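Input.
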Amino acid sequence: MSGLAQIRTLSERMTIGVRKADRPGWRRLLQSFGLGPWPPTDLEMDFDQYVLACVLSRALDEIDAREASVTEATGLSRAEVRDMLAHSFPATVIHAFALEEVSDPEPGVEEELLRCLLLAHARPDDPASGRFAKIIARRSLRQDHLWLELGLCDRAELSRLLATHFPTLAAGNTNNMRWKKYLYRKLCEAEGLSLCTASSCRECKESEDCFGPEESERLRMYTANLG
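Output.
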């Protein structure tokens, strides 16, 4: 069975069209599926698996740039990465990440706090939610918008991910605040701190930092590559 056929057997709940920019990590991931160097326009997979594929493509970008290992990029232990790959992807994918050469990540205080926040709102007894809590906490430490750091196509995909696996946490973002800003605000509230001294968001001079369009230089580069 081909890599594409193996992935299609996992599409029990939904089908999504994967249209990604021509990133090296995404190309390598597709090559490990046996799909060749170019991303197809319609690759069928479960939404959770699609998100994991996006995260792994970002991890491959960082591995190629010698910025991080797969465990450092995802916040998952080597055993967790191995289990995830074994259960969600064709067997050929695991060889792209050289797991025998990596060590387990060492989360700092900030990352642990983010993990705890997410886990407190995770779906009960759902290993996938626990895994995404670790991944989101680790990727939140990166500089760009969270959906970009997860390798997703847009903010709506991140909103769907959070609503699925952390429903009570996601439901509290009633004003459509940027997700990373929202997570850190909730973290500060839990610690009894005040993240912002403005009396209301409407009166804050920096409200665009929390609610403005989520664009970046990397996003503009992706868009240019698609043209």
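Residues 1-22, 35-43, 216-227 have pLDDT under 50 and may be disordered.
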